Records
---
Amino acid sequence: MRVFTAVIAIAAGILVLGGYFLPALADVQTLLLNWAVILAGTAALVGIFNLVSVHSDKIRRQEKGSGYSILLLISLVVTFLFAMILRPDHEAMDIILNGVIIPIEAALMGLLTVSLLYAAIRLLRRRADFMSLVFLVTAALLILGSATLPFGNMPVLGTFIRPWITQVLALGGARGILIGVALGTLTTGLRVLFGADRPYGGN
Amino acid sequence: MAISLDLITGILSFLFTLLIFSYLIGDNPLFRIAVYIFVGVSSGYIAAIAWWQVIYPRLIYPLVFGSMLEKSFMLVPLIGAVLIFMKISPRLAGMARIAMAFIVGVGAAVTIFGAVAGTLIPQVMGSIEPFDLFAANLRNISPVESLFNGSIILAGTIFTLTYFHFGARPKADGSLHRMGLIELSAWVGRIFIGITLGAVFAGVYAAALTAFIERIMSLINFIGNFL
């Protein structure tokens, strides 16, 4: 089984990667990508089923906070049934999207305003070293520099310092981080294709 | 009908925004109710999307209404989907490894190509571009400014990458240390990383502030409609 799963992962990976470089493999690549999308969709359903089973167990054992689990399951089942019967693009489904999902996401994002400010103050109080200062001064300069005044951008800070920090200093660091992340991703992907890493459970 | 749907949407939006903002006075049951409902509703919605936009059009429809060739091509993902569903049973979960191996293999290939074509090559080209003085002239940027900024960006990139170099040699006393030059470059790299993360923080803060103001305005507008 171990060898079989490794062979499937390596063969699928090589065929898909080959499809980017060899036009002869392009059709095979499209087919394999389509299969992968179907399997990923199925895996999402299994993940949601797992969520249902975890919360059902919680309710059955009458654990602390099981009332919240009941709410979760009711909202999940009701939404799923409505979306299956009406289809997700139905006008009535907009209530769920615009009345529940988007407002909660936006409000949670809005809460970050307070959490980030609190985190910045805590950073200054607990670790007021040179690097924390660099971090916070940069953030403060950029936030102040992006403030729009009645007569336009803030002089010097908004017109020169902020663009120079974002387009030169921060770009250099961001580029280094991005290249580092890409190299790490490349290595991890190649290890999977060579069979050195088997995150699908093949040891 | 449209008005009533809008009203229901408005009431729900108002209610859930208030429940989430109740977190500002501390963690409380109202906030948790909103979060659990959010997880339930999102999961149910995602499950329906996965069915209607992925599984039905790509798997079920070709299997039922497709040609013989299409049907035969869809047998493999059908078997894969059945194998993945075996994950639900602890006894049969091992069988899902076959389908998971396929997903991981395809994912690794897509990730490798994405990392090279989507990040490495564009970033390297971006680092070279400021040193192309002909292109700088075409864009009406002074060559000196382009060279100066390009050098700082390149130095920032190299110093930042050096910071993530963890190779070290053992000293006589057994302790591990990086070479002096690398240590110095890594220290400068930390400054660039600090500036970059500060810029990211400022960007996220600005986005969060925008969302906060938008939600507060929606609350005010909703109340204003009834006054």
Note: The first helix of chain A runs from residue 2 to 21.
---
Amino acid sequence: MEKAKKRQFGIVATLISILIFFGAITIMAIKANTTHQGTDTLERVKNAHIMTWGVKADTKLFGLMDTNDGQIKGFDVDIAKAVTKQIASDLNITIEPIFVQVTSSTRIQLLKNGNIDAFAATATATPERKKVADFSKPYFSAGQSILVPTKENIKSVKDLNKADKTILGVVGANSIINIKKFAPKAKILALNDYAQAMTALKAGQGDAITSDNGILYGMSMENKGYVVAGEPFTNEPYSIAFDKDQVPITKATNKALDEIIKNGSYNKLIKKWFSKVPGMNWRSLER
Amino acid sequence: MIDILLKYFPQLLNGFWVTIESSIIALFGSLILGTIFAVMQVSRNKITRIISETYVEIFRNIPLLVITLFFFAFVAPVAKKIGLPIDGFTAGTIGLTLYTSAFIAEVIRSGINSISSSQMEGAVSNGLSWWQAMRYIVLPQAFKISIPNLGNQFVNLVKNSSVLAFVAGLDLMYNANSIAQNTFDSLNTYFIVAIFYLIITMPISYYMKHLEQRFKGGAH
């Protein structure tokens, strides 16, 4: 009798604690969603005189941590700086850009939580993403391509469309969804970041890495014996992302982008970052 | 939340099975390895003691992720040459087995040590060999004493199996990451995944409690 009672008590106590646990999480989730809504990013930036940008820190050419001085450097970072400067001068105030390191898998949550105001992190505006975030005009014309070992005879993505081929990518990257259309027979594996994908490729865990050509060119610069094969097979330009329904800052950013393209500072940045990349037609990127 | 669950249910279920598969292999693998190393540690032979102590200290003190990446990135190319492909699932499960076995070895060793040494002496003086005494007298009692701690280790093992996600092992966490990215809704996705993990770990907790009750008072 006693035992049965004890057991009953145990089960009831467990159920109640589970309910409390999930209830608390739900309340927290609702709170997290509501507290952030209604704050206007542009207002916040104006008042704080600080604009916090999420940028990649593991992607050569776009956002890479320089271990000598701890600064993140790349095309995305410079575009963010130029846009911030332009918005500030349009508004006649000073705004200091601050950079926070993000990855493909953390960037949207950081944006939603309000840890960052915007991100320029090699992100393509897809219809599904547009449901949860606002995107600026494209600031870089990227397209998907493949990186393969030079010694393997892979000329284009068609050579990978076989059941015994494995294509590597990065979790959260759009390319991993797209590649299924171009090489439906191949096996696809997603690693955590590009460094790990490169390690996996070197370890023979896959036959190619797929990503945007800009990122792949950066990887081929750092890794001898690996080349970008064939022409890009998609058109997926990069855009700056903001939280959903942040119309004022999106408009201000679009205006700033137009202005830096017009005054030539955009082309300077293109030249600065892409003129040294072997095999890349950087003139075609100019606007 | 419901729409994510419905839309991605097949994908989540695939990951769920992979997690269970990896956990079961690692559970039995680490229990066997752990027991062997525990017995080696209490044996009278100095060399076996040193071997097992080194093993336990190495695998207990290195992060699971590092062990897994070692097999994924360094052992795999070598193994491939001799015709043994190691993919993310294999690397993760090996890492999980070795890592957990080091902890289980410690749990069972402490179980063995808690059995009075006079039992071993008595068994040996009654004509049993050291091995027989270990096998029939000491180990069964050590296991009973170790059950609560073993339960902890098994629950940890299931949760640690999320290391497979790092090496593209296609487990529950791997699929969760990919769904969270496709939907941009990490909160609800990981919430669903938490429930899936509970479905695996809760029965383990309860079963271990049940075993503990059953053997209560049996060994002293």
Note: Chain B is about 85% helix and 0% strand.
